[in-house]
UniProtKB/TrEMBL annotation, chain A:
It is a multi-pass membrane protein. The chain crosses the membrane at residues 16-37, 57-78, 90-111, 117-136, 143-162, 191-213, 277-302, 322-340. One of its GO terms (cellular component) is plasma membrane. It comes from the Bacteria. This is Nucleoside ABC transporter membrane protein. InterPro entries: ABC_transp_permease (IPR001851). GO terms for molecular function: transmembrane transporter activity. It comes from Orenia metallireducens. The keyword Coiled coil does not apply. It is found in: Cell membrane. PANTHER family: ABC TRANSPORTER, PERMEASE PROTEIN, GUANOSINE ABC TRANSPORTER PERMEASE PROTEIN NUPP. The keyword Transmembrane applies. Keywords: Cell membrane, Membrane, Transmembrane, Transmembrane helix.
From TrEMBL, chain B:
This is Nucleoside ABC transporter ATP-binding protein. SUPFAM superfamilies: P-loop containing nucleoside triphosphate hydrolases. Keywords: ATP-binding, Cell membrane, Membrane, Nucleotide-binding, Repeat, Translocase, Transport. GO terms for cellular component: plasma membrane. It is found in: Cell membrane. Gene3D superfamilies: P-loop containing nucleotide triphosphate hydrolases. It comes from Orenia metallireducens.
Amino acid sequence: MAGDMNSKELLKEISIPLLAILSSFIIGTLIVIASGYDPIATYGALLQGAFGGLNSIADTLLAATPLIFTGLTVAFAYRCGLFNIGGEGQLLVGGLTAAWIGTFKGVPMIIHLPLTLLAAMVAGALWVAIPAILKAKLGVHEVITTIMFNYISYSLVAYFSLKVLAKPGSIQTPDIEPSAYLWRFSNVLDMYSYLNIGFLIGLIVLFVIYYLLWKTTIGYEIRAVGISPDAAEYGGISAARNIILAMLISGALAGLGGAERAMGLFHNYRNGFSAEYGFTGIAVALLGRNHPLGIFLAALLFGALSNGQDYMNMLAGVPVDLVTILQAVIILFVAADLLFRRVLALKPEGRKGE
Amino acid sequence: MDAVLEMKNITKEFPGVLANDNVNLDLRKGEIHALVGENGAGKSTLMSVLFGIYQPTKGKILYKGEELRIGGPNDAIDLGIGMVHQHFMLVHTLTVAENIVLGSEPSNGRGRLTLSKAIDKIKSLSDEYGLDVDPNAKVKDIPVGMQQRVEILKALYRDAEILILDEPTAVLTPQEVKGLYKIMNTLTEQGKSIIFITHKLKEVLTVSDRITVLRKGKSIGTVNTAETSETELAEMMVGRKVILKVEKKPAKFGATKVEVKNLKASNARGMLALDNVSFEIREGEILGVAGVEGNGQTELVEVLTGLRAANSGVFKLEGQNLLNETARKIKEAKIAHVPEDRHKHGLVLDYSIEDNLILGYHYKQPFAKGLNLDFNSMAEHADRLIPEYDIRPRNKEILARSLSGGNQQKIIIAREFDMGPEFLIASQPTRGVDIGAIEFIHKRIIEQRDQGKAVLLVSAELSEIMSLSDRIAVMYEGRIVDILDAKEATEEKLGLLMAGSTIRSSEG
């Protein structure tokens, strides 16, 4: 069936990300040793911080949640041949919108919760609409426009959060109403983590996106445009229409990521709302091979790294920058996958016969 | 016998593919040696081994009786082996001379380019071999035939003794082909040896001295041209008897089905590419469109299939106005399209055979239920068409990219013919396709005609146009210069029209 791979292809697909991760840890080890630290203690502390106990595991999942959304943001657009690197801005706009709609009083939860989520998705989609239309109609490169829209969003979001929504003197918007809270697991489990059902929403969205891309005519068209716009046009598939559609869905996914932060973690919009989730999402998509399952695993890895880094710093005394180095080396190796292909001769196809 | 080059028992193995299996080839001084075989027979691999691009797994190469190893193209060039690729390797914005010296630019020793000596050498070579090339012309300004001679000059400039010509006639008009033959003969008279790669048997019989046939990586044999025939060669190539002549019942024309009037359209650069094109096609008729490539055929097909907007004109199928409708609407009007460039347009190369077999029809019954793809009916569809159209390998999940050209083309043919078209537009339907598949595709096209459908056949292969068409329209510079009855058409007549002259003085 379309989209499903046989085991050989699958092995080929995952071997490179795995090798990239392995190599990055080897290089990380060398750096740790060269800096005079104990690598075993370092990685031990990292692991313990990320997975040592219920609370740590929950925090790792909490850190992975926005990356699931932003990873999908990048991957979905990529499947249509587009590089949406405006996920950061779309997430901020979505998050602010959720933080605003969430403050509406007197709305029953059954309406308020979905309304707030939906509003964040619409906001994220609208934030990418102009780049999408410019790309589809005039061929303006989406990398340029989406990144420019990031800068616009930083200022716009700061203005609305601080000058319009926040009480004078406060650096955060008022808390949202409980009717717009995403339910936290700490309500029933004995832990401090703010892990909330936003994570489960992320899992559902992963599946929905998988289904949309590989089981529906919409996905068939979007992927056809992504692989070959000319062949798509020949097949009566409008490239322009699908580019706009894919971008809007991509933006909506980022907006939903922002909603989880606002409704599940912070309960408001505040300064430092996003730890560059939009940009890390690019790395997540790259490492996850733009496939929902891969994105899930990559988001977990990056979540674990960012969650474990403080513990590593506390216990082993290794600066948190090590994690940044690890992440950077992973990206470097994934991006340079040709290197691995060469070394492993994974793709010795050459020219066959004629 | 003075063999200038011998390739002995060459075996080249790729993982899972034996591209050359004990192939033998000997080239005599001063001969034109044709290398023929279907796509995938191993011609290109063998030449890549000779040119040093691949190292053979087994076997040896003897040059003037001496065994040697060719480590790379530079070794080959140093030995005096020159290659003229099917797709020219020329920089269009540079002059002929600049292109020829590219890679070994003469300089005054201080980094300054000194072309004057090179230009003199090019001129004398050009005169010696009758190439008629102006070293100072920009490549973009000279015709395709001359560009090819520039490629030949490039090899001669590097003192090539052996020239490999890879499908050299594919881009030429019949008159230009004759010119090329003359040049090939001059070259061999002066002691050069030529390896001529092609799959067109008529050309081989006309110009070569000896012929080596490859099939599935093996050399089937080397024959003297004078002692063989087209039928024998075809049989050697394919491995079975091949019907070369297209069997065609007399046409039974019905009412006018397709009407095109005063069509005008611009090309991608905004220049007028179609200039008042008009024609009609009846039920049960094949209208062939002949012409040197780039004279508006591509744009004509694009307009008729909804891929390019026309500026003005009429396009009707059975009275229904379809001009400037979307590609989807046109498909729904039962117009099938076998596109000229199957890689660019006809297939999503990274989709499976199964997925490609529904391209353009994916959004409706039976392949879609609402927004969901119906994988059962997709599978049934593929399982039915793959054997019916003999698509190999018989595995619907394989990516179209990994199929041979002929089988890729069969995917398109299967998809487009199976929809039950009323009007079939086939552009270069057999380009790069092997003889067995050509036979198959031709049969299917005739079948459409005999079922009373209208067919528009655009092809650069004159023999294809002449053997399939009922009438032949010749395009030149965006116009239809003339429409001939296929019975009256000869290669000479068509060739003249293709070059822009008119038989009748009526124009436009």
